[in-house]
Sequence to fold (241 residues):
Amino acid sequence: MKWALVCGASGDIGTAVARRLAAQGWSLYLHYHTGKDRITALTTELQEQYSRQDFLPVAADLSEIDAAATIANQLFGLDAVIFAQGTTEYGLFHDSDPGRFASMLRVQLQTPLRLVQLVEEKLAQRQHGRIVFVGSVYGGAGSAMEVTYSTIKGALSAFARAYSQEVAATGITVNVVAPGAVDTRMNAMFDDETRAAVAADVPAGRFATPQEIAYWITGLLQPEAQYMTGQTLYVTGGWLK
Fold:
């Protein structure tokens, strides 16, 4: 049985990934922090639809220093890890709070990379391990007013390029899927006028759905994707990068 860990499974993209993988026969570890109710409902839904598979909630606050070990200690078999957690903050970098900056770094970069260290051996045992980070078009293009977020997402792409070379011989692939504008709760913080202005700038003329991003993430987990590693795939509707 194939096992995947979906970090941030209570988020819109994470939930879409979980549903798609479950339909493909995967058993899942469903990580969450504050979204317990959403994970409880998702676990029940998936168990009812796919009774021969297992769906295990995993609670951890990725801003805590021991979060990676907390998660790793709950994993048995493991074939893939998808990092779909994280959020942004909007404002001038000059005014950003150092504590908030440190928290974002830990949640979206430091803890995920530590977890990769801890699960590398498990993934290598499968000889076709998969690591996929959800990045952002801003990791390549950059965004004023979201400097911290852009920096972190760019770092994920740099990590994938470098680390993929170290583990390629083990069969592990490491990639980033970098969406553009996606219709998620994270982007609901912007008003309708701002969202309309962004959509007007996207050549496709709209925001992506979480399901459209999940398609590319889960595609990288397929056996036929073995030769794709160290890459950042920009799924942007033709926008920016």
